[in-house]
Structures are given as structure tokens and as C-alpha cells.
């Protein structure tokens, strides 16, 4: 079993406003592995870690999440996949509320 780490940085300064979908490559993840996805923000100090079982993503080329930002919150919404564990330093960072939205 390997732990595979992928890092994604939310960068609104270089993305089009309509581009809210973030892709995470999973082609190297096998059934026995664990995938850790660290999501940070370029300026807000957000640092969240999402853990996935390899067997739930080994047949996929990638997984995706969307980011929605408002004046006081950031929502990270996973599409079609649910992490088995979420770790974040705090749910309120620099006045922004970090919200995790998961599929049912």
C-alpha cells in the first residue's frame, strides 16, 4: 500500500471566473493505495486534506471537485466521489468559512 499525494492550489487570480472545476489525476493509483489530496488557496491560507481509498478510484483516470467562492465562504464540492476522511486546520480562515460539500 502506497500513499499517493496530489496537491491542488485554488488560484482565482489566474483562472477564468467560469472555470471552477479542478481535476486530480488518479491514473497511478492502484486498488491497494491511498490517495491524499491537499487543497490550498493562493492567498487565504486554506489547507484541507482529503483522503480516498484506492479501490474507489483505481478505475478512474481522474477525480474532480468544484470551488465556489463568495464574500465570506469557500465551498469545495467533490463530484461523484466521497473522501473517507477530511482534515483541515480550521473551518474559519482569515474570516472565510471553509465548507466541504460531498455527494450523497
Average of pLDDT: 89
Strand content: over 45%
Query: Can you count the beta strands?
Result: 9
Termini, distance in Å?
A: 27 Å
Weakly predicted, low-confidence segments: none
**Neighbour order of strands in the largest sheet:** 2-5-6-9-8
Q: Enumerate how many helices there are, as a single number.
A: 0
Query: Helicity level, as a percent range?
Result: under 10%
Overall form: globular
| Biggest sheet layout | 5 strands, mixed
**Element pattern in H and E:** EEEEEEEEE
What class do helices, strands and sheet pairing give? mainly beta
* Rg on CA atoms, Å: 14 Å
Fold and architecture overview:
The termini are far apart. By secondary structure, the chain is mainly β. The protein has strands spanning 3-10, 21-25, 34-41, 47-53, 62-69, 73-79, 85-88, 92-93, 96-101. The chain is globular.
In short:
Helix content is 0%, strand content 53%. With 104 residues, the protein is mainly beta.
